[in-house]
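General statements about sequence and structure are easier to judge against a single worked case. Part of our work consisted of pairing the sequence of a single chain with a tokenised description of its backbone. The amino acid sequence and the backbone structure tokens for this protein are reproduced below.

***
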Amino acid sequence: MLIKDTNFIDLPVFIKGKVRDVYEVGADKLLMIVTDRISAFDVVFDDLIPDKGCVLNGISEFWFDYCKDIIGNHVITTDVSEYPMGLSKFKEELKGRSMLVKRVKMVEAECIVRGYLEGSGLKDYKSTGEISGIKLPEGLKQADKLPEPIFTPSTKASEGHDINVSYEYVKKQIGEKLASTLKEKSITLYKKAEKYALSRGIILADTKFEFGMLDGELVIADEMFTPDSSRFWELADYEPGRAQKSFDKQYLREYLESLDWDKTPPAPKLPQEVIEKTRAKYIEAYERITGKKFTA
């Protein structure tokens, strides 16, 4: 079942993002629904990617459980039959693509960990030799592995791209103790997931997290190590000095770069081949990471 919008849910809207719709379930819970919408260059497309929502939700569920020894999370259940307030009647619409979660007070920082040189980090390195104030060795190439994973936070932007900031900036914003914990947990999570991904023939190049406070404890929330929040590369094809084959929207982005489109709305219509190949990459990521066969 393709899900573009979730207007069938008759609950107060908490937030609607590019891909996720979140609803208030009483005072202390939220319903997170991952749609089949896709965005690229901060533009949401009319075309949907079949099963994408279920893939992202399933991958997050896997990682929340795999990393629970490092930090707690906000998940209550993904079993729709256990959802309150009559939500179980939407079993077909919500199955596999939703989570009932605890409502947490989000920390105002995007926590990014980079193990390899790519994306905005590569741009910053080329211009300054640094990323988020961290000096890196000279002569690094695109996609090179960094000597150690680095914590490179960014500000949370309500629209458009987030802005890379220094760890010192985050300390001033939220306090040294919380900032230090965010950094330590982020790097520990990345190292555990990177090691596991390598065992599945995948490089976890970088990722971003969101954290929140729940009953005075720091927990991880939103999504976790998905192809939308992380760069996953094919280990067998890895070669520094160029762009890598990835398990995300790379095929879609490459197609869009070939168009005469200025990356502003409205988004162009996607050919069926692009939709199918993008779907296939998401499903491959799910199966490689979780070790399970994807069933729609």
User: Anything to note?
Assistant: Helices lie at 52-66, 91-94, 119-128, 167-174, 176-199, 250-257, 272-290.
